[in-house]
Amino acid sequence: MKLTTIRSLLFALSILSFLTSCEKDEEDSELSRTELLTAETWNGDRILIGGQDAADYPGAANLVPDPKSLRITFNTDGTFTGQYTQNGQTIPASGNWELSEDEQTITGDFFGLASEAEIETLTTSNLNLTTTVQLPNFPFPLPAELRLVR
To answer: Is-contact 131 106, C-beta < 8 A?
Structure first.
């Protein structure tokens, strides 16, 4: 009898968990990409180059910012403000951004570099952007991913 009750409870919890996760997905899909981007400040989590954490590359501190120090706020008027730390120095930034018509690509003059990035993931808590970067003394561009969280 107790085993049946425990199984019933576990089944009910599983269903509740499943329904709750579905509600979250539906909630995310109700917001436009612009609303998701501009809702709050994004915080850096990781920078991947060629699929590896950029911090693992020798001399990376001189080439890429500390991802955990990155803060960026996208404003609804198409501007952004942000900052990051590189070589112990905090560097502020501001500029313009724009979504492509299909809302899959974001372009802008981010941190002094004109760039375009594909939006791989965009939810209320995660923003993953991919592009290619050319590293000094490297013969060809490498795929890069910037992961941001809230």
So the answer is: no
